[in-house]
Design a protein that fits this description.
about 270 residues; 8 strands; about 35% helix; two-stranded antiparallel ribbon; alpha/beta; single chain; 6 helices; Rossmann fold; about 40% strand
Amino acid sequence: MIPLMRMSILTADNNPPEQKAANRRMNSTLSLQSTLRFSTFLFLTFFLVSCTSSKRNLPSPLTTYIDPDFSGASYHTVAVWFNHPALDWRKRFEGVMAAYIDSIGGKGLQSGYIASPTRTWDSAALHQAFVDKGVQAILVVEIDQTEVRQRSVPSKTVTTQNTTTSTKETPKEKSTVRAVAGIVKAVAEAVETSTTKEVETETTTETTGGYTYSEDHRRLQVALVDLSSGRKMWVTTIWQSGKIEDDIIDITIRIARQLRVDKMVG
């Protein structure tokens, strides 16, 4: 029996030149496809490993409550309303939050572009503006409590010593007494040297801390409101410290992640 590889070679040898060229092109195509499949496999493996390792750094889940009347409800088109007088904070927060709603399978809209802050809205007009955009629920985020807390940084003293050793050679002098014409004369002759070591120690003391500072703390109330009934059907609370503009990404990620876990948006 002829081995399979040998049969392929023999068969190829008996083919006309046109068939040989076609076979070479086919083999080249198959080789390229195999390479692409292997590259895709490596990419997906790296991606999954990265996702697995990144889960270790995910923030802790939020504590949420779902109204029993809305058990099993899920919304696709959700408008984000950040109820804050600072328009720059509102625009940035709504934009980032809407993007994360998109990332979990929903459609996020910024309320600032639906109900423009340039107008005064009554309840009926505001409701109709959201209906016209196909909104099913509104994610309302507002700061309902702010407090200033004092933080104390304890003092810490660190002492370091740097020791430097140097070698110094000093000539020794030997006195020889000679009588020259009745006069005693001392002649100094350097005949050998002595070696001494000099040790220098430098001590540095550094003190850090020992002060207090003020830090803002805010409580954010978050609610998913059913547009047709106007009722809250999902609520949670987030505490935030420091500058809120520095934590917008973290806050919106936590909200979006919890909405996905609770299957409220999709």
